[in-house]
Design a protein that fits this description.
polygalacturonase activity; 43-stranded mixed beta sheet; single chain; about 850 residues; Pectin_lyase_fold/virulence; about 5% helix; Pectin_lyas_fold; Glucan 1; 6 helices; signal
Amino acid sequence: MHGFNPSLLLAILGTVSIGQGQTADPSASIPPDASTALYPAFTYTPSVDADYKPHPQGIPLSHLNHSINPLSPLLLPAVSNSPPGLPTLGSGSNQHPYWYEEITHNGISPFITNGSEWKVFRNVKDYGAKGDGVTDDATAIQAAINDGGRGPGGNGLGTTGAPAVIYFPTGTYLMGVPVQSYVDTFLIGNPINRPTLIASSSFVGTTLLFMKDPDLDSTINFYIGVKNLVLDSTKVSSGTTFTIMDWSVSQGTQLTNVLFKMPPASKHTGVSTPEGGSGTYMGNLDFTGGNIGINMNNQQYSIKDCTFDGTTTGIFITHGFDLVFQGIEFTNCEIGVDATNGGMGNVGSVALIDSVAAKTQTVIKTKSQNATTAGDDSIVIDNLRSDSFGNTVVAGGVPILKGSVPKTWVYGKAYAQNGPLAGAHDLGTTYQTSRSPALLSGGKFFTMAPPTYQQFSVNQVVNIKTVKGFPVHGDGQTDDTHNINLILARNAGSAITFFPAGTYLVSNTIFVPPGSRIVGETLSAISAIGSRFSNANNPTTMVQVGFPGEIGVAQISDMLFTIADVLPGCILLQVNMAGASQGDVGIWNSHFRVGGAAGSAVETKCQSAPPCKSAFLLLHLTPFSSAYIEDMWGWTADHDLDGNFNQLISTGRGALVESIRGTWLIGTAFEHQTLYQYNLVDASNVFIGMQQSETPYWQGTGGPAQAPAPWTSNLLYADPTFSNCKSNDPNCRMAWYQRIVGGSNLYVYGSGFWTFFNDLGTCLGTNGTCQNNAVEIVANPRQLFWWNLNTKGCENVLLDDGVVLETRNNNPGSWDAVVAATLTHSGILVRRALNGMTRRAWQA
């Protein structure tokens, strides 16, 4: 329990209740206008030996607004009374317009010239689109995207300087030519009745939507979203090779609640990633017809809760190292997942969990393995319900599994509790695994779609910038702490709080009480400033969700957590509370950024050695918490998005997970923190579905500091001490990717841990590795199931209480190394005798 001050909270809130049951003050009047007033092309196909290094910079921000100074004297607006009363948050219905379409849109881009006049929200009908299914609307849609000088050539407004929501009201938008999008662009439809974008029968081109910015490498295509749409290619000839969406993007992106409609038995593809990328998450998608639903050519991905109906191949993997498919339904498909990549590229690992296949000829098609081959195409199937129509797994053209998989089936290298020290190659082993009931819903690991709050009307949503008498600016230069806290406390249990696009400076902790629902726009930023966050020996939390022991709803969507200055005592986000039901406490499409962008002094202050201590910890899930987190990127900048400043930044820690009540981490990535990316300490009941990390580029041989430096290990936060390393062993003293210290009921599906550099240069370790050790297990956790652990550039894949258990040399494959199953702390014992096509294993 760190980083909060109960006395301060009471001083800020006075006598306002923050309980879940809070309702609006019936004596407070709401003004009559309350409904609104209150409220060069790059191709990425590396082989297993390719030493790919990301592009070093984003778009230069040539129109920086120098009048913005986040370090100037802070403005503190005085408040004497509570905000006016708000309507009660009822059960809601869909018999009203979508609230986001009606609410006041006053988002800004604070750090560019004339940023206060920047148009963030762009309704395509304001640009001439008709949505009548007859008029060609492609030109109008492109005009909405390009407005304000956005467009080819980098637009001069930076990766973060030109945010835009391209909004589609309900309708059918005929398109005769492709539309090109750019970074910091979000295509959003009305979820109550999703609008349709349909390619005309005379469409000129082969792709409907290009969502990748053509002026940036795919690996730095960040901050992009598409949701609440129907994308339709049924008017295009079935014999034409056609792609609905090019989604060659990376972290900090969201693709959700989209239906891809294609002609049956056609040459069409729904989603393709032809130029690669370093993605994290897509989910709640539906595909009908077509040749391929998703053509995957990306480093890693979590793909969750998708359906494929009548699609020839649901998911075709051209390339991918760490792929987790969760809650997938294949119906009337020839192939569910094709992991053979046509004999080209490289598939590291695939996990298919909690899925269904009906009338599908082959659920997974992969390459053949034997006991001496590399671990490429490691397959883990966990809880698959399949009819007897076809084969479950075909390897090298030979069926090796048929029917359902009620427990866990493994094809790849495995380390069992009583197995050989060097592991064993499973050629199809069924493990009698177990799951914690705390993480399950209907026998599956719990998942939840990103909320749209479409059942609520606009007068149940508060625009935080338009509460009369309680100004909140979001301008990147005014301290908004006081009024944000007052409004959040007042809204709890009564209204959704909408943060229009902007940067909201805070000089003290923002308290998110039970009953809160927070929605941002183009990743609205809460940014720390001031001396309260400066003491690394006594860190303070910037955004705190609940107090320990509180129960209720606290949901956050589409927000960014960052810092405006070098603040070594800042914990960016801490979650203390749990929900009465799963998903009550949830975070969707919300990210962290330290440095690398305009609006933060870290961008310019941290350019030279030693790396500056910029932030203490990104995410802390305390023992009292239970949180569902989906699509989260915790990034300490390795390059500059908005300029050409060198970035030599040290954030102490990534995600510290201590929760015992239930934690779901789906499609998350934590990169470039100094001590660790993930640290599970005495945690219980944790599900991780695809995680991705990189260590700091400045660490290793020749680097300016050796971990824990420039930090000191803090035992109050269960920091690693690196006592396993010699005092001068720089490739040993590099950030852990993941530590698991004690705990129980831990389920990890798909880890992608990549080390590219020693001191921003060539890897100088043993046999060309960059880092000695990737992950460690400490203090004998119980019921730990770790599936598909992938690494690059690490000599030792896993240490167990200081003893090397898994090495790169013994587990070749994927981008460098892959282990399909780590079960040494699972309680599973293996029966060595062969039983048909599988070896059997059982729970001890």
